[in-house]
Amino acid sequence: MTSPAISREKLHTEEAVELHLVDQLVTRQGWRERPYTAFDRKTALDPEMIEEYVRTTQPDAWKKLCDQYPGKERETLTRQVEARLKSVGTLEVLRQGITIVPGIKITLCTFKPASGLNPATLRAYEGNILGVMRQVRYSLRSENAIDVVLFVNGIPFATLELKNTLTGSTYQTAEKQYRKDRAPNGEPLLTFKRGALVHFALDQDNVSMTTQLNNGKTRFLPFNRGRDGGAGNPDVEDEFRIAYLYRDIGARKAVFSREVLLGILHRFVLVDEVEQPGGKVKRTTIWPRFQQLDAVRMLIQDAKANGAGQNYLFQHSAGSGKSNTIAWAAHHLATLHDDHDQAVFDTIIVVTDRVVLDRQLQQTIKSFAQTEGYVVPIDGTSRQLKKAIQDGAKIIISTIHKFSTDQLTVLKNEDHKRFAIIIDEAHSSQSGKHADSMARVLSDGGLTNDEKELDATERGLLELQRLRGPQANLSYLAFTATPKNVTMERFGRMGERGPEPFHLYSMRQAVEEHFILDVLCNYQTYKSYAKLEKAIDDDPKLLERKSSRKVARFIDFHETAMIQKAEVIVEHFRRHALPELHGNAKAMVVTSSREHAIKTHQAIMKYITDNGYTDVTSLVAFSGEITIDGQPYTEPGMNGFAETELPRQFDGDSYNVLVVAEKYQTGFDQPKLVAMYIDRRLSGLQAVQTLARLNRTYPSKERTFILDFRNTVEEIRDSFKPYYNVTRLEDISDPNQVYNLEARLKAFGILDEAEINRFVTRFMEAKKRADERPVLEGIVRQVVPRFDLNLNEDDQEEFRQVLASFLRFYSFIAQVVDLADTDLEKLHLYGSWLKKVLPSRQAPQGEDVTDDMLEMAAFRLQKEGDEQNASLGKDDHQDLTPIDRFGANPYTEEESKTLTEIITSFNARHGTEFSEEDYIRFEAVNNDILDDDVWAEMLRNNDPRDVRPRFDAEFMRRAIRAFQRDNAMRNAFMQDQEARDMLMGLMFQRAVRGAGKAA
């Protein structure tokens, strides 16, 4: 049927948009337009199309139906389809079909097979009838009409309400129409599960969707491509911005193309079931959002064209549904075939430490594939992992640690299998020893003919080195919202500006689309001021020595401080946060340690009890057991139920405040969290991940609250900047730095080449017998006396740091570059053992500070101004730096102690909270002086007493210039002469030492 023409006077109307969309579906994507009169309001079906599909694709079944129900075949078929829709729902009917007495099996949708080995199935797939109707009057109770309804073989799966911006209405008008005028009760087309699977609200520019109409509570999600890194859709030449729904754009097929649409119904749409407190099960139909659909389809397109051996970095914002994206990617890759009908991958391995994802992935895949052993979660030992790989499991879920045992190495080179490894929350751990082990277990890389002629040890070293790097049989998929520099270089695709994500759904786009909340909108900081008095007079320098850290701890844990913070937290939560979500809002309190969490929880509960409050109750979360003042504490003991029960209990009505210590700060999805109270230092990636716990959306959740007792607004904003838009690197890491680190290690003069070679030879020839261990360790321990005798304490600490830097950087760079250097592999093998046998540095503990030494004379918390909107703008961005710092001039213990004393005494005098990180920024000023050849020469060749006055003047001049935009730091430096003199003394000491080492 040809779409009717429209008059010039109506070209600006909604009808023109509607006609254009339908016409494009028909002419470009092969849809069939059907008259709205073909719609049966009672059954919400197009019976004629159901009959045509069954008759043309399943003639044998149709003949049996005609023979069994002569003259009533269409009526019987329609009635049975309707009955099954009521009992199991649209999705199940489309995927599983129906059976009619006597045993007539009828398929109601044929999906594209993974391979082309079954021509009959391919013909049935091509026989699917995609139907579209305009102005569908769907109700027996009214003449309400839905603008467009989409069908597969006569069964409706989607409705569309279109609006027209030229006449003043938008997709949001369509959302209101669905909420107000599309009540689902008694309407088969609109009933959840039984009717259409998805409902789209759209205008010419934007699209949103929902899978469940619930009158005024209906929640819509964006279904847009993104525009210039933010919300919306990009322009399309000579088309509406929503053309991606019905028109192929570049390499991307239209959403409503036969291939994409039937693929969504086949392998994307799922019913999620979550048990609620009280045992009730909540069911939600999940239709992929555009970025999820696009990520998986672009991945499959690339993997099919290029095969195994590729890297894929997905930078998808926290809260954007990464778990489902990972599940969909795993399922698609597991069934992917190339143009020659060969499987691209033998096994998909999902590497995660999140139990929630394990369970969610299994549940998601189970809805697609019923085959026993298709998905194997590894909840036991690496022996179970080994068996799953050998048995040919298609999808394996494991932690990376399972790959580190020797028994798995027998799998190397076995059967030349190809693997896709999906890494959830990929961070720098992927550049370490566990990632090396995984690569060695799964790779099938071999040696060249020339390399095979080397001796056995050299061959083994080259093979080990190569197995760390990219492998032709291994593809890596890394998913993270916050990629670090090592993640970018290890998994990113090289672009014009360095490594880039393969696919991006930025934090900025998620915020602008209101898919997640902007947690920086309402940010309030507090400062604490303490006045201490010495309780004993024979210790005049108590605040200016190595006990300074414990003085700070004394302040933090003092009962007075705890009570005041508990009051602020509880009263703020009751006044501002608790009324949100109709009284169901929850809060998280982030503390710095297990003891801090326990004392904070106790202080909160005491304040609640003392004031007779019944609307606030706290839980505490921490790992293991800790003894405080002789009393052992565990999380289950304090809460009264098992650790595994905490997420469910906290989600219920009994508890609304959760105090945490290094737990539930990542990977914890509790959308009812509205407030966060931060009582620990946070920076960088940790700050972003922690605050992201608040960003999940929830019905009627429109804002969040953060009270921060430890950090400044600018510090937190700086932490978010690298991850708000697409993450980029200033530059890529120079692989030649590995040779600089090697040279620095050898320059200490304690490593013996003969010992290294002897260790490596023995190690490579080891037969995995227990008696090899003492022999190997004995060889390595020969260096320890030289370490103790030949190096002073400062040099020992520097050697430890350079060794650790070499091991980390080598593990990383060997995954990115083919180094082809056995000497580096030797040093890495040897160094890995050496690091474990070197004597460790004993940190000065200082003495405990107790009530009989100090008294808290006064303590107060004070708001720093009004609540601030700390939100980032669309152009706020900060590139990550490459890996280029390896502890070249580490602080000695005495220097570290001096720095701590400077900071502690300054903070005590001024009520500030400067950290070591703040003061170490002065190190850059020192480095500038040392980079000046004239100054370096002067420091090397003159008596320190002579050069010190000139150094102080030069340091002050450069420091003032360096901190001209940092008022707080400049004022701290200029106004307190005592602190300034102590700091310049420390920096002069380090400058003299640094100049001497550079000679």
Keyphrases for this structure?
29 strands; alpha/beta; 43% helix; seven-stranded mixed beta sheet; 999 residues; seven-stranded parallel beta sheet
What does this protein structure show overall?
With 999 residues, the chain is an alpha/beta fold. It contains 37 helices and 29 strands. It has a 7-stranded mixed β-sheet, sandwiched between helices. Strands 14-15-13-16-17-12-20 form a 7-stranded parallel β-sheet, with helices on both faces. β4 and β5 form a beta hairpin. α25 runs antiparallel to α29. The chain is globular and about 110 Å long. The termini are far apart.
Q: How much helicity do the residues have?
A: 40-55%
| Spatial extent as radius of gyration | 33 Å
Determine the structural class based on helices, strands and strand pairing.
Answer: alpha/beta
Low-confidence stretches: 427-432, 447-455, 534-547
**How would you write the strand order of the largest sheet?**
1-4-5-6-7-8-9
